[in-house]
Specification:
Radius of gyration: 13 Å
Number of domains: 1
Number of strands: 5
CATH architecture: 3-Layer(aba) Sandwich
Shape: globular
CATH class: Alpha Beta
Largest sheet: 5 strands, parallel
Number of helices: 5
Distance between the termini: 11 Å
Strand order of the largest sheet: 2-1-3-4-5
Structural class: alpha/beta
CATH superfamily: Response regulator
Order of helices and strands: EHEHEHEHEH
Helix content: 40-55%
Strand content: 15-25%
């Protein structure tokens, strides 16, 4: 499985990488702009990501903007919903308003709040243990 983690906080990024590495390849980036660049490069190389874990509040390009750009690119490529990358929005805010914006405006697949734990990740990944 190929995964991308976008988080501007170093410790959060490293923790997510360590928790996810047992599931497959994990690439780490520092903001939404780098996430979009990595996403586009993966598609250009015909090796798209299976899952993107996207922090919402980041500098340069936030998670909402990055996911919207990813979904736009997938639409341009003619990808059907079943072939779109699974996007998990990750945030410190436990806000129903942010969750609704993520689902309905950005097209994310799921939403989790920090702190991220192995149990939360296993639940999101269908209960599959590494």
């Amino acid at each position: 499985m190929k995964m991308l983690v976008a988080d501007d906080e170093f410790n959060n990024r490293v923790l997510m990488g360590r928790l996810l590495e047992a599931y497959g390849q994990v690439d780490l980036v520092v903001d939404g702009r780098e996430a979009l660049d990595a996403f586009l490069l993966a598609h250009a190389e015909n090796e798209p990501y299976d899952i993107v874990f996207m922090d919402i509040m980041m500098p340069n390009m936030d998670g909402h903007q990055s996911v919207q750009a990813m979904r736009k690119k997938e639409a341009e490529l003619g990808l059907v919903a079943q072939r779109e990358v699974k996007v998990i929005m990750v945030t410190a805010l436990d806000s129903p308003k942010e969750a609704m914006k993520s689902y309905y405006h950005d097209g994310c697949t799921d939403y989790i709040t920090k702190p991220v734990t192995r149990q939360k990740l296993e639940h999101l990944m269908g209960g599959v243990s590494p």
